[in-house]
Amino acid sequence: STAMALRRWSTHARFLPAGFFPRKSTPNSWNSSCSNRISKAFSTDNGENKLCMVYGGAGGLGSGIVDTFSQAGWQTASVDLIGNQAADHSLLIPSGDAWGVASKKISDQLTEMKIVPDVIVNAAGGWGGGSVCDEKIFETVDVMLSQNLLSAFASGYLASNHLAKNGLLVLVGAAAVASGGSSSGMAGYAAAKAGVHNLVSTLAEEEGLGAKATVIGIMPNVIDTPGNRQAMPNADHDKWTKPSVFAKAILHWASDGSATEKFPKLENGQFYTFETLKSGKSIADYINGVETAYLYKSE
Prior knowledge:
Helices cover about 35% and strands about 20% of the residues. It has helices spanning about 1-5, 60-70, 100-110, 135-160, 175-180, 185-205, 225-230, 245-255; strands at about 25, 50-55, 75-80, 85, 90, 120, 165-170, 215-220, 270-280, 280-285, 290-295. The termini are far apart.
């Protein structure tokens, strides 16, 4: 069931949950109503205050986005199974509820706390292998849909009810799936991410979120999170894209949106592929072919 999948979201040992490796976090022993106690003062009456809400904000990618926006002077809100004390607001997803019930409770909290996000990012997700001949394929599909696709639908639902006018919704797809490469060894994951890609296009239509918002998809290859390093300790981590690269791009698009030497232009319904290339001691990050960051490792 979806409720069972939600409970397994961050705990199923078989999968690699990219969005759920907490840092500065608090175990989910609280009741969701306790989120008010760790919220800093925020007033939507101040037009200069901007707020970024991250679904999966306590994980490896999500916490990096929270940190980047906080350092830029934005208010931040984390929505996750566990709390993120680095965020100005930390809302806890009720782990025993079905998706619809849990999303409605989060929506009610946002209304009660008068939080109107200017940006909503779905940083939740995970990877699981397996083909259709695997006897556990249905278990895999259940978890992949929960981690990747249903979390994207939850973010879209919250955006439809709470995103500020001219706001930005960011969903996370997968470059490997979009490129049309072999997905036979990760059938459930590929199907879930393909659904996310379709959802981006659907929400970008006028009948989706309409003129109220810009909806984009970011397409990572491998994200450099503690969880991924733990799962693949022998990989060349220099070829993985750091969370800060995604966060800085989203911050630029949320603040300006114009094309620059380091960032492509923000366009509704667009997909942005992130790639990290290494040549000798040189490491460069690209977004749709635009070099956004460069590092020379002297050691």
